[in-house]
Amino acid sequence: MNPCLFALLFWQLAFAQRRDEDLMSFVTLPEVRALKFEITHHNRDRASPGYWFVAPYGLIDPETPTRKYLQYQVGPYIYDQDGVLIWAGSPMFDNRNVFDFKAIHNIDDKPHLSLIAQRSFDETVQGSGVILSQHYEVESQTFKLPNTWEFNVHEFKVLDGAKSALACVYQSKMLDMTDVGHPGEERLFLTGGFAELDLATGAPLFEWDSADHLGLHETDRFHTWDEPMGPFGWDSVHMNAVDKNAAGDYIISMRFTDTIYMISGVDGRVMWRLGGPESNFIQDFVFSKQHDVKFVESNGTHHIISFLNNASDEITTDETVSSALFVELDTAASPMTARLIARYNRPDGQLSRLRGNVQLLPNGNVFVGWSEQGYQSEFSPEGEVLMTARFASDRFSTYRAYKSEFTGRPRAPPDLVASVYGTNEDDLTTVFHVSWNGATDVAGWNFYAQAYDGGAPVLIGYVNKADFETMYIAHGFLDWVSVAAIDHEGNVMGTSAVHRTKTPDNWKTAGFVGSSKGLAPMNPSTIYKEGQASGDSLSHSALSDADTKDLVGALSQAYEVVRGLGSLLILILVGSSILGILLAVFWVLRRRRQTPTYRHVPSEESFPMEESHLRDNGSD
Ligand SMILES: *[C@@H]1O[C@H](CO)[C@@H](O)[C@H](O)[C@H]1NC(C)=O
Ligand SMILES: CC(=O)N[C@H]1CO[C@H](CO)[C@@H](O)[C@@H]1O
């Protein structure tokens, strides 16, 4: 191949403008580009209830700052089981990487969220372990220990009651090489350990480091002939998970020794090793390069543990497929025994070389995050693959993925954008887009308009929540608009601020050919009022749910097409989309004629906006 052509191709591959069709976009949150999921439900009926908690990142290290405008993509996200976005936390963490993001239910009777927010590239923002309330407010933030260089990104495990949390700790230390046959020699190593941190003060209640308890010979990574490594030293053990049982002992995982260790909570001694060349167990299975070891049950001597056996890493492959393992340990027996009780192989038969996690769900199902490209799967207890999913984008991974029930009640009000369109005063249409970042359990939206600022809100209509963002089209130029989120029992969950409707910068160039007299917003009560001649009103509430769904579906499809366009096809597609919108409008008008009376929505007629503003968006 011509070298110039090759160079050009390489350049294009490496630096080409990334395409964005694997990302979502929203009118109400234009700064957020959430990742899309590709999902296969193999057996939806057996899936456990709950949402997905992922934290996509592009590069695992903090990314270099840029002066270019960037939309928010990486950080904590909640999705439902159909990949519908529930919460985009990327703006809250300013596009920084987040790890180990999950819902936790062990603090009080309210659900919480926990995560590790990575430091910024220039370290002006420190990394931390963070607990958020169900209102997405920071309740607790814990920073790195003074003897370390960052808050390690592998684990942030909040213990029951949230007095303390477990975190991995990496330190750079000069270690004596006697253990590997070089007495009197010292080398710089990155050691691995953990700390139990007091969440009120950030101080360590318990600290443990591999340098004090393990021999250098245990690592399968370091060889005495290796060159010295970087400013931090050789990553000797690669500590990547920690958990604590009721007896007060800790279980930890080290990827570069292929070993799970039990650490005494009394004196830090290694109580036993599982796996690796020095295993203390008679075991009927093998594993390597494991992640996310957790207690499922433990009474001090008998344990059931779960972990991800990725069986491979950056360099070697030990098995042909990665798996989630559940193992029963009897440490009272002599010799101690380790028995495999369940194994869930990666459904696509691939290897997760790095990262991953296993979660036993309350109904016995097993949820596994395989990490790369957000690949995740849910299994029935006996191993049936119920669901597999991955990010539509191959540019992002998530360190871990979790599934959990959660109730999110954001303090911020719903976001609303309304715009008016039309070609003359008779066909003016107000298009609403509404979303509420982080709110779970929203069943639908009430739409309101006022005759003037401070006027009484008039109910325009109701539509079921269709997606993260819901679109609604109302007849007429409506202004001073607002929305109310309605739950499944019909209660108001929260209301937006009153927004002004956006008008075209230039009505004529936007296609308006009527007289300018038609351009003032109308008094909504003249057309959206009970008993009013139906010929002037258009409301979704006059349509059945199914009709509404069809209409909203048709409109938002046309709208999606318009929005997602790239380049040459734009004219053709805009044309057909406009045709689609025209058809939809025509269809609505036709229906309107078929529905002689406007059906009033009784409970919301005189919905007092002032009062609703005072209403809390949820309880503490
Ligand atoms: C722990 O569980 C095992 C198996 O169920 C049981 O045999 C053993 O007695 C228990 N030990 C304690 C201390 O409860
Ligand atoms: C089946 C298999 O290859 N298992 C390997 C898992 O990893 C350990 C440690 O690297 C090996 O000793 C096993 O043979």
Automatic annotation (TrEMBL):
Residues 1-16 form the signal peptide. InterPro entries: Arylsulfate_ST, ASST-like, Quinoprotein_ADH-like_sf. Keywords: Membrane, Signal, Transmembrane, Transmembrane helix. SUPFAM superfamilies: Quinoprotein alcohol dehydrogenase-like. Residues 610-620 have a biased composition (Basic and acidic residues). This is Arylsulfotransferase. It holds the Pfam family Arylsulfotran_2. Residues 601-620 are annotated as: Disordered. The chain crosses the membrane at residues 565-589.
